[in-house]
Structure formats: C-alpha cells, structure tokens
C-alpha cells in the first residue's frame, strides 16, 4: 500500500482571488484502483480508476463540503 500526500489546486476561491490549496492522502489498492480522502475530511473516502480520476472525485467532494450547507460534515484541521 502506498501512502502519500498530494495537493489539489481548486478554482474555488471563496470570494478571494487566491486559489485554494487542498491536500489529500491516497494509496493504490491491490486491484489497481486509487483510494483517498481530503486531509481536512478524513472520514469521507472516495476512489478512482487512476490518480487523475481520484483527483477529480476529491475536487468534487471539496466543492460539496465548501458549500457549508451540508449537515453533519465534520472537518479536521
């Protein structure tokens, strides 16, 4: 299992002109798929067929959580 930390650059800037940097942890499973989570939301995992697919799915999660209208989402950090 590979454990690594990477950074996503999101175009979501929350009203500022600075890009948001989103860090995440991922690993590759024995079946070749990638699993990962946003470091600020470690309870919400997602998977992708490859690393780029995983990044897209993680950005989708980030955009959902950034809306601040989801009940019960817990953020760490």
Could you write a compact summary of the structure shown?
This protein is of the alpha+beta class. The chain contains 1 helix and 4 strands, in the order ββββα. Strands 1-2-3-4 form a 4-stranded antiparallel sheet, with helices on one face.
Question: What do you see in this structure?
Answer:
This protein has 77 residues and is an alpha+beta fold. It has one helix and four strands; from the N terminus they run ββββα. It has one helix at 51-66, and strands at residues 4-10, 20-28, 34-38, 45-48. It has a four-stranded antiparallel beta sheet, with helices on one face. A hairpin with a 6-residue loop joins strand 3 and strand 4 (45-48). It is globular. The model has no long low-confidence stretch (mean pLDDT 79).
Task: List strands and helices in order, with pairings.
Layout: E1 4-10, E2 20-28, E3 34-38, E4 45-48, H1 51-66
Antiparallel strand pairs: 1-2, 2-3, 3-4
Following the backbone from N to C, one meets helices and strands in this order, namely EEEEH
Shape: globular
Beta-strand segment tally: 4
Q: Helix share of residues? A: 10-25%
Question: Strand order, biggest sheet?
Answer: 1-2-3-4
End-to-end Cα distance, whole Å, is 25 Å
Model regions low in confidence, pLDDT < 50 over at least 5 residues:
none
Salient structural properties:
77 residues, alpha+beta, 4-stranded antiparallel β-sheet, 21% helix
